[in-house]
Specification:
Elements (H helix, E strand, L loop, with lengths): L1 E5 L1 E6 L4 H5 L6 E4 L2 E4 L15 E4 L2 E4 L12 H9 L2 H7 L3 E7 L5 H5 L8 H11 L5 E12 L2 E4 L12 E4 L3 E4 L5 E3 L2 H21 L8 E14 L4 E13 L4 H5 L15 H14 L15 H5 L9 E8 L6 H14 L3 E5 L4 H22 L2 H22 L2 H21 L10 E2 L5 E4 L11 E3 L3 E5 L6 E2 L10 E5 L5 E5 L5 E3 L2 E2 L4 E3 L4 E4 L3 E6 L43 E2 L2 H5 L8 H5 L8 H30 L6 H27 L1 H12 L4 H7 L5
Helix pairs in contact: 11-12, 16-17, 17-18, 17-19
The structure holds adenosine-5'-triphosphate.
The site of adenosine-5'-triphosphate (ATP) has 17 residues, from helix 4.
Length: 701
């Protein structure tokens, strides 16, 4: 049984963010039932002839610009109810389903897909609804979670012993699949949540390690639902297999900046090849003559290959396009709406997946026999290829033949390995909203993805070697990180010391450290150019912490715990007697706005004034303009069909990164005014360069 239907497309507009509010951006979006209207205005194209409003028709339009006005705000529940209508039933009828979020960085994809603890998004809501749905058959659910970054697939739920990069293959019955991707048997929402949290944490860890952001990768979260129906009378049984894909795509503007929208494809110069090809596939499928899948080149990128069934194939698909309401995002919003409108023309032919697994097993068994036979007579040149094919088929067969009990056992074993792996990196796998026992000693990685609800915690043991080398306990990489960067030790009494490697850049509360030093609760540790940690060791508090900017290096470590003053910029919430429960904002938001008088008095002459800082930031604005110009030149080169050399490709990516980071810093200045200046002043005073500030500005967001 099959059903033809168009990709269902919804658009959701988010509230103005701080930067847009601070800039007093005007709203260029309005919605009227299933119409989204985009207004062009003078700010968008100064000096140009004003275009009239552009209307786009979608299946659903969600107005979510002001959550303080609940009557006019499409919340998470409404989005779920509208998009979810019929979808849970479809899954249980045996259809594949795919929901993907598309839009520029910061437009609300992750908020809509994952949501927050208080406002869960589509993924948690669909998962609970799927698990709660009653079925006449025996239902089993498996989960996989992967990310695609720069055309490489990584399993977010299997770390140790696995190849970091996985390959995509295609089977004539099962369609495209990722070889060796771990499948986890789950029965409750709690099982799923644990895997989700662990997967998100791995995503953040990898991103932080690579000095990237998780928003540059695509995340594909898949539930495979199997229902077995036994017919008591005939003694036969039938199986329905369906896949539920939830896809959080990388920010779309990268594609357009690098010449997407079907205009230009340049292999080496593409910042995000996958999105470029996704745009191409959508455009192709939207054209009547191309609707047959055979005309569409899905295999040109990993993302489109894996989404083959979801786009123009065997799936019921929903696309959620997320947009900003602000005029200064006009270009990106326009391009998102054009894409979304195009996607609406894609026609899918979803088929009930009945006994798919049995059929696949039967063909695979046949294939294995055939390949073995061919191998017997193959010449050496051919045999290598045949062996590879045989291995692929045998692996897939093995996976399909696993019993449910074996799968459960594997999931348990895998969870243990994953836990050990994360712990070996010093990372807690506790769920978000972490409650830490008050005595625990750990480092909090301030470079964690600011948009994620999760934290990277590095639990300290007696000896903790930190650096880029393979023998280190906490492996970091990036500019300024030495093979053996430093060692942090903890005595049985809970005293914590940092022993730097003389030539490595290590700072404690802004001071360069070249000898062993004792660390105290809430000390801030900077390693290399990018890493910032804060120490949680409530048992060992520095007596006069905030004024300790010029702390002497201590060789005599014994210190009594004394009255504690909280660190001015990173306060952990909760009383001292409570467990430390901290929320991201509690330590990401600067709490104290004025620079402490005592910290200024010691060297007032040499401190730059706020005006000086603003002037320096103006300078950094100028360098952003210069960066933007460079970026534009490179993009133009791409557009004019010139191939970029390797150096230029790297420059393109780096420049884009710098622009983004610099913009974040400037938006903070305009959004938080003097408060942010005070913070930057404090950090500049402690010797951080403007460039380092720009690089680390993410943790102020
Ligand atoms: N509908 C909404 N209601 C309230 N806040 C929202 C909404 N959509 C997004 N936001 C807020 O906007 C910010 C950016 O959203 P989000 O991180 O989801 O963007 P994104 O498109 O996933 O970005 P990226 O591509 O960088 O991952 C977040 O702080 C989020 O909480």
């Amino acid at each position: 049984m099959s059903e033809r239907s168009n990709v269902r497309v919804a658009v959701r507009v988010r509230p103005m963010n701080q930067r847009e509010k601070a800039k007093q951006s005007s709203c260029v979006i309005s919605m009227n039932e299933n119409k989204t209207i985009l207004q062009s205005n003078a700010a968008v194209s100064p000096g140009k002839v004003q275009k009239g409003p552009t209307e786009f028709i979608f299946d659903h339009c969600f107005w979510s610009t002001d959550d303080s006005d609940p009557d006019n705000y499409a919340g998470q529940e409404e989005v779920f109810r509208t998009l979810g209508e019929g979808i849970i039933e479809n899954t249980y009828q045996g259809y594949n389903v795919c929901i993907f979020a598309y839009g520029q960085t910061g437009s609300g994809k992750t908020y809509s897909m994952m949501g927050t603890d208080d406002e869960p998004g589509l993924i948690p809501r669909f998962c609970s609804a799927l698990l709660n749905k009653e079925s006449k058959g025996t239902v089993t659910v498996e989960l996989s979670y992967m990310e695609i970054y720069n055309e490489k697939v990584r399993d977010l739920l299997k770390l140790k012993k696995s190849k970091t990069e996985l390959s995509v293959r295609e089977h004539n019955i099962l369609g495209p699949y990722v070889e060796g991707l771990s499948q986890h048997a789950v029965s409750t929402w709690e099982d799923i949540k644990l895997l989700l949290v662990a997967g998100n944490k791995c995503r953040t860890t990898a991103a932080t390690k690579m000095n990237e952001e998780s928003s540059r990768s695509h995340a594909i979260f898949t539930l495979t639902i199997t229902q077995i129906f036994h017919n008591q009378e005939s003694g036969t049984s039938k199986e329905l297999n369906s896949k539920f894909n939830l896809v959080d795509l990388a920010g779309s503007e990268r594609a357009s900046k690098s010449g997407a929208q079907g205009k230009r494809l340049v292999e080496s110069g593409n910042i995000n090849k996958s999105l470029t090809f996704l745009g191409r596939v959508i455009s192709s499928l939207a054209e009547e003559k191309n609707r047959r899948q055979s005309y569409v080149s899905y295999r040109e990128s990993v993302l489109t290959w894996l989404l083959k069934n979801s786009l123009g194939g065997n799936s019921k698909t929903v696309m959620l396009a997320t947009i900003s309401p602000a005029d200064d995002n006009y270009g990106e919003t326009h391009s998102t709406l054009v894409y979304a409108e195009r996607a609406r023309k894609i026609v899918n032919e979803a088929t009930v997946n009945e006994d798919t697994k049995f059929k696949a097993v039967a063909t695979l068994q046949e294939e294995v026999l055939k390949l073995k036979e061919q191998l017997k007579h193959a010449k050496s040149q051919q045999s290598q290829e045949l062996k590879l094919k045989l291995k692929e088929s045998e692996n897939l067969l093995k996976q399909l033949n696993l019993s449910w009990e074996e799968k459960l056992k594997k999931t348990e074993e895998n969870a243990k390995v994953m836990q050990e792996y994360l712990e070996s990196m010093g990372i807690s796998v506790e769920a978000s909203g972490i409650k830490c026992a008050k005595d625990q000693c750990f480092l909090i990685n301030l470079n964690s993805d600011p948009k994620s609800n999760d934290y990277l915690l590095y639990y300290l043991r007696d000896d903790n070697k930190i650096g880029a080398g393979s023998s280190q306990d906490f492996k970091l990489s990036g500019p300024g990180i030495e093979e053996e960067h430093c060692v942090i030790t903890m005595t049985p009494d809970g005293d914590v010391f940092l022993v730097p490697n003389g030539k490595a850049e290590t700072r404690v509360n802004g001071n360069l450290v070249q000898e062993k030093i004792q660390l105290y609760h809430e000390d801030k540790i900077n390693l290399g150019s990018n890493y910032s940690f804060i120490l949680n060791q409530p048992k060992k508090r520095q007596p006069n912490h905030p004024s300790e900017n010029k702390r002497e290096l201590e060789n005599n470590p014994k210190h009594e715990s004394g009255p504690h003053e909280q660190h001015p910029y990173y306060q952990l919430s909760g009383s001292q007697d409570d467990d430390n429960e901290f929320t991201k904002s509690s330590y990401l938001t600067p709490k104290k706005v004025e620079i402490p008088a005592e910290s200024r008095s010691h060297d007032a002459q040499s401190l730059p004034s706020i005006e000086t800082v603003l002037a320096m930031l103006q300078k950094s604005q100028d360098s952003i303009t210069e960066l933007q110009q460079n970026f534009q030149n490179l993009v133009e080169k791409l557009e004019s069909k010139e191939l970029l050399n390797q150096q230029e490709c790297a420059a393109l990516e780096n420049t884009e990164d710098m622009i983004m980071k610099s913009k974040t810093l400037l938006s903070l200045i305009s959004g938080k005014g003097k408060n942010a200046c005070a913070c930057f002043l404090e950090l500049l005073e402690k010797g951080m360069s403007i460039m380092n500030l720009i690089n680390s500005s993410r943790f102020y967001v």
